[in-house]
Specification:
226 residues, alpha/beta, Monooxygenase, Leucine-rich repeat, LRR (right-handed beta-alpha superhelix), 2 domains, 6-stranded parallel sheet, 12% strand
């Protein structure tokens, strides 16, 4: 039996075991398999591991998307999670391109994926408070929001959760060093049903705090003297 003789349900099941590139390559072989590739039921879950993946055409965004994960830790991307004053001009330009890529992608998610249930962003130094605000507004069914080492996230995101996160049940802001203890307490007060986790966040030195560079330089000098 040839693969194209299988019914749509069987083909969707087979496609579900393939990664995005394999699905795209298989879809190029015939019109029937292309139709399977374009079936929204195939795209309820998406995982990305580098900014480059967000710009490819090997996936579909649509109302069927329920679970989205964007997690990357490669050496090339880590520079986007360090303080701006430590970056040279090349690194700043590099990070700006990534920020535009991520922002554009998340805007597409806002516009096309209103039924999103869970979002995980890890190591994404490009994600801003405004991105999360728009996602909360446009994805009213979002139940789980997990942010890890997203350095641009501040108390504005926590405030957006209290205003627009009516369906939210899980909120993680681990290693998000620009959120404060006061912001976390407001979430606990206004959203008692939300399971909140903030490992190594409010206790870290925020990027936005005035004089941080001087503080770190003094600490470094003291270590040298010791």
């Amino acid at each position: 039996m040839h693969i194209t003789q299988l019914n749509r349900e069987c083909l969707l099941h087979l496609f579900s075991f393939l990664d995005k590139n394999s699905r795209k390559n298989l879809a190029k072989t015939c019109h029937k398999l292309l139709e399977v590739f374009q079936d929204p039921l195939l795209w309820s879950l998406l995982n990305f591991h580098s900014p480059v993946e967000l710009k490819k055409d090997n996936f579909l965004l649509g109302p069927a998307l329920k679970h989205l994960s964007i997690c990357w830790y490669s050496e090339r991307v880590k520079v986007c999670n360090i303080e701006d004053w430590m970056k040279n001009s090349f690194q700043k330009d590099f990070c700006k391109r990534h920020e535009n890529t991520v922002s554009d992608f998340l805007l597409d998610v806002c516009n096309r994926c209103p039924n999103l249930l869970s979002l995980t962003l890890s190591g994404c130094g490009h994600v801003t408070d405004d991105c999360i605000l728009q996602l909360l507004k446009n994805c009213p069914n979002l139940k789980s929001l997990k942010l890890e080492n997203c350095v641009q996230i501040t108390d504005h995101t926590l405030e957006a959760v209290t205003l627009h996160g009516a369906s939210l049940r899980t909120l993680h802001v681990d290693f998000c060093r620009n959120v404060t203890q006061a912001g976390l307490e407001r979430v606990r007060e206004k959203c008692p049903s939300v399971m909140l986790r903030a490992d190594r966040s409010a206790n870290m030195i925020p990027d936005s705090k005035p004089g941080k560079k001087l503080m770190l330089e003094k600490a470094s000098r003291k270590l040298v003297q010791l």
